[in-house]
Amino acid sequence: MRYTITGDNLQFVNVQLDEREVLQSIAGGMAYMTGNMVMEAKLQGGLLRGIGRSISGASLFLVEYKSKGGTGIVGLGGSVPGKIVDLDIGKGKWIVQKTGYLGSQETVDLRITFQKKLGNIFFGGEGLVLQELSGTGIAFVAACGDFNVVELRPGEQYKVATAKAVAWQETVSYDIAAVGGIKTALFGGEGLFVTTLTGPGKIIIQSMTLSELASALIPFLPAKG
């Protein structure tokens, strides 16, 4: 499989498949494909796994793409203004925010996973459910805004504004910490808690969340009546 990621803040991942190669994506992820591509919705892993995917923000059915009669091309796009990043899952598992998974090679396993601490569930910004990517191959993750990819050294820590942690390697520990004193919490604009990520491993941070984008657009929407 060969691919390129093109565009600026409204990106495509352009995937070139030879015969016998398979790409899978969430339902609705396909933006275009060549005429020799065949797509088929499949309930990968059975009904229970499909329900788990839907709870995690992906789709109940995944869509498989195969080429017939030579090389074919399929383009996947995110659903909001933002970025797409490629992750080599063969180098280790990744934990991804809900709705982050866009597509992957068929050898990548997408599962539902849960926050391990009660405080993370209530204050982490992403709630109870996350996505876990394991197996081998390349996966594509999409989210709102621009991305900053940081590789943390062992023990190095980043405090990230709530819900702006897009993904992190399994080796990174994830927790919630108080943002500071009462005055900072009330007037600092970040709320009471921040996400704390501790290395070693890579983390991906987004500049804007979908909820922030929606809030910024509300004042400019037409009023009813």
How would you concisely characterize the structure shown here?
This protein has a single domain, classed as Mitochondrial biogenesis AIM24 (Double-stranded beta-helix, 4-Layer Sandwich).
Q: Could you say what the CATH topology is called?
A: Double-stranded beta-helix
| Beta-strand share of residues | over 45%
**Outline:** globular
Q: What is the count of helical runs? A: 4
Number of domains: 1
Going by CATH, the architecture would be 4-Layer Sandwich
Give the biggest beta sheet: 6 strands, antiparallel
Helix/strand order: EEEEEHEEEEEEHEEEEEEHEEH
Helix content: 10-25%
| C-alpha Rg (nearest Å) | 19 Å
Describe the structure.
The protein has 225 residues and is mostly beta strands. The chain has a single domain (2-217), classed as Double-stranded beta-helix (4-Layer Sandwich), CATH 3.60.160.10. 13% of the residues lie in helices and 47% in strands. The strands form 4 sheets. The protein has a 6-stranded antiparallel β-sheet with strand order 5-6-3-10-13-8, with no helix packed on it. Strands 11-12-9-16-19-14 form a 6-stranded antiparallel β-sheet. β1 and β2 form a beta hairpin. The N and C termini lie far apart (52 Å). 32% of the residues are buried. Mean pLDDT is 84; it is low at 120-125 and 184-189.
